[in-house]
Write a structure and sequence with these properties.
The chain is mainly alpha-helical and 479 residues long. It is 64% helix and 3% strand.
């Protein structure tokens, strides 16, 4: 059972908090560090977008591809199991009378209704945490380890879960108290008020969580000085991102995925990279990924997606409203539920909302995916690292099915598929072949045989402060 809050945060975090995750890990599952540019992806008169794309796709072995498909397609089913499991949890709470008893206890402990709601919410979250645990352990711990994506032992993982629970216990009951206040006062129009409250709340959450919540889970420190930092700052300044603050965080203690983000507001804006990204990729990849992240920031995706998703949520609340009243009229008495303002009916409301978001998956995914595609386009233009971006997309594709069907992509993908991203990168490269910037690094066919074949040709470096000579060579840069 996900709370309204955590379901939405999950939704939104798909975009900002795990923006460009990708994997590197144990045992053959991952692509080796460093940029590898297939011959077919080198600019030239014979350059062909489709051939270049296929050449990139071939960087994944059949075994890697099978594993990635299995992991990702398994995720489709997990969505369904989570929905059904959530129904089960709601049924347990309602049929056993537990929900009703938690409400009665809250009423005995507090006089004011808002406080009763708050207390009920705390009990409900705790009960939900325990009842959800078996599925959470499987999806977030066991399965992640099976696929080599997780690095934490159980104690560490569980500690993080407890921290997350504590944060939720501080925030969610207050929000629920507000929502129930709206339900009591606004009558049949509560769902409109609830949407407004949720919108404001989501916005705050998104602005504040990078500053106040994320540091609870990971250590943030200034990015080590060097070419990488300079490149990122240069990219930020060239794109009107008002910060000199570039930080790195130790995500490797939890995961093998890479990620980065640009977040914050006013004085807290900062660019963050996780250590997997820094340790396991190349400078062109890092620049490409950061260009994408900066795209989210510059295009104001946080605000825009919050508005869009709040609109979807408005339909969701309306859906709850209709089904709730009908259900209560029919079964309310049997479960000791009074009316829609009765917190004891919350498990029912959440189950209905869960059903709504399950059905709305193609819509929410498409909203997010479209913003991701915009950030991709922004990033390609800003960083001018098409091969870096294609390579990063390949890394992501070690755990995201790389080439889905068209309908499959619409329904299940909250980012463009690996195929779409590599193809877009190669298209960009083709269209920019005559651009001096794209060409600048072409003679990367370095003199001495030092570099491995996949060094790094078409990389821009242009907009860069000119690090000595071999700057643009860096094959497997960065460590
Ligand atoms: Zn993104």
């Amino acid at each position: 059972m996900k709370t309204v809050l955590s379901a939405l945060i999950l939704l939104l975090s798909l975009c900002w908090l795990v923006p460009a995750a990708h994997a590197e890990g144990p045992g053959g599952r991952d692509l080796p560090p460093g940029l590898q540019i297939p011959d077919a992806a080198r600019p030239g008169p014979q350059f062909d977008v489709d051939r270049a794309t296929e050449a990139y796709l071939d960087l994944l072995s059949p075994a890697q591809r099978t594993q990635s498909d299995a992991y990702f397609e398994g995720g489709y089913w997990i969505r369904l199991w989570q929905l059904l499991y959530g129904f089960g949890v709601a049924a347990v709470l309602l049929f056993s009378g537990l929900s009703r008893r938690m409400r009665d206890l809250a009423r005995r402990l507090a006089r004011w209704r808002w406080l009763q709601t708050t207390l009920y919410a705390v009990f409900w979250l705790l009960a939900g945490f325990v009842l959800d645990l078996p599925l959470t352990v499987y999806t977030d711990f066991v399965r992640e380890h099976q696929y080599g994506l997780a690095t934490q032992d159980f104690a560490g993982w569980f500690g993080d879960q407890i921290k997350g629970l504590v944060v939720t216990l501080i925030v969610a009951p207050l929000m629920l108290a507000l929502l129930y206040g709206a339900v009591r006062r606004a009558g049949a129009r509560w769902w409109i008020w609830a949407s407004g409250i949720s919108f404001v709340f989501l916005l705050f959450t998104i602005m504040l969580s990078p500053v106040f919540v994320e540091p609870l889970f990971n250590t943030y420190k200034p990015l080590r000085d060097g070419e990488m930092r300079q490149s990122i700052l240069s990219l930020a300044h060239a794109n009107q991102i008002p910060t000199d603050n570039v930080v790195e965080f130790d995500a490797s203690k939890q995961t093998t995925r890479i990620s980065a983000n640009v977040a914050g507001f006013a004085g807290t804006t900062r660019v963050a990279l996780n250590d997997n990204l820094i340790e396991k990729t190349s400078l062109p990849e890092i620049k490409a990924v950061m260009g994408h992240e900066m795209g989210h920031y510059v295009l104001n995706h946080s605000l825009r997606l919050t508005i869009y998703l709040a609109l979807v949520l408005t339909f969701g609340f309306w859906f709850v409203h209709r089904l709730m009243d009908a259900s209560l009229a029919r079964w309310g008495a049997r479960f000791g539920l009074e009316d829609r303002a009765d917190p004891a009916a919350l498990p029912l409301a959440v189950a209905i909302l869960g059903l709504f978001f399950f059905l709305a998956t193609p819509i929410t995914n498409s909203i997010v995916r479209q913003a991701e595609a915009e950030a991709d386009a922004f990033g390609l233009n800003a960083a001018r690292e098409p091969n870096g971006f294609a390579m990063a997309a390949m890394r992501l594709s070690t755990y995201r099915k790389i080439h889905p069907g068209a309908l499959e992509e619409i329904v299940f993908y909250d980012h463009p598929s690996g195929y779409a991203r590599v193809h877009a990168s190669m298209q960009w490269l083709k269209e920019n072949q005559d651009n001096p910037t794209a060409r600048a690094a072409l003679p990367a066919a370095k003199p001495a045989g030092s570099e491995a074949p996949g060094s790094k040709p078409a990389e821009s470096e242009a907009a860069q402060p000119a690090t000595p000579a071999p700057a643009e060579s860096k094959p497997a840069e960065s460590k």
